[in-house]
Amino acid sequence: MRNLPASLLNTCLRLVLLLILVILLAYFLLSWSPLDPINAYLGGNVFAVSEAQKALLESQLSLDQDVGERLLHWLGGLLQGDLGYSSLYQQPVSSVIAERLPISLLLIGLSWVCSLVLGYLLGLIAAVYRGGWLDRIIQKFAWLMVCMPSFWLAMLLISLFSIGLSLTPVCCAAPIGMTFTEQSLASMLQHLLLPVVTLTAVSMAPIMLHTREKVIDVLQSDYVQYSLAHGDGLSKVVLFHVIRNSLLPAIILQFATVAELFGGSLIAESVFSFPGIGASIVKAGLASDTGLLMGCTLISALLVFGGNLIASLLSRRFMVEASDA
Hints:
mainly alpha, MetI-like fold, 14 helices, globular, membrane, Binding-protein-dependent transport systems inner membrane component, cell membrane, transmembrane, transmembrane helix
């Protein structure tokens, strides 16, 4: 606790440095993109406008400036709370993010909770029944999910449940003509089901494998062997010793994998045509929409940093408790 101010200062400095590096890297990579932003803005009809109209459009989009000038102009707006204007959606970037970020957070949050709960329970079962058929099946399932690309799993689920069995919608976050919040709760759950299942399946494998190894270590520890030798049942040992010593490491690992979960949401939102911030990043990159891409990149960097920061703080707390024990 005595080092708390220094720790907070160090964390803030790391956040500022990370954001600066992310902004510079994203901006320069976008400036080197071979895509023509004018052609993307006109929807491929660049030859439908005259040279004078093209020059006027370049001036309005600040494309007549060099990369350094555009970056300084964007940073100046950022310091005043202005994230710029999206040429793709024809509205301020802050409005685009405010409209799409809650849906992405809901999708990522549900997937985060489901992958933690299911991954931990399956890892716990695999460790308790180590060497048995349940353990072998769970391990093979985990390795299969590690190797499976999220877009392929998403298309497989769409083909099976949406097209083959007609149980779920083929795409989108709501029926055509409605927004996400205008539909009923049952419709919301129906549209969220396949994207959440996809993200959960591909992100819970590390939790399963990590929990299995951690629980095996706990079961082989001296205090568990002592407890079993004095007649305590396996269920009591799992409840009072195993879960207590293996759940927090699993939560820490889950917070540390927010970046992977966010990366998976980009693909899942694109495949399911989910109007979240991940799909907006992909569309902004393809349309060379610098303002929207930079705004979304900034928000995603803050989310990933937040997840890693929570994992770091929990890990530090866990180490202090372990050293005091």
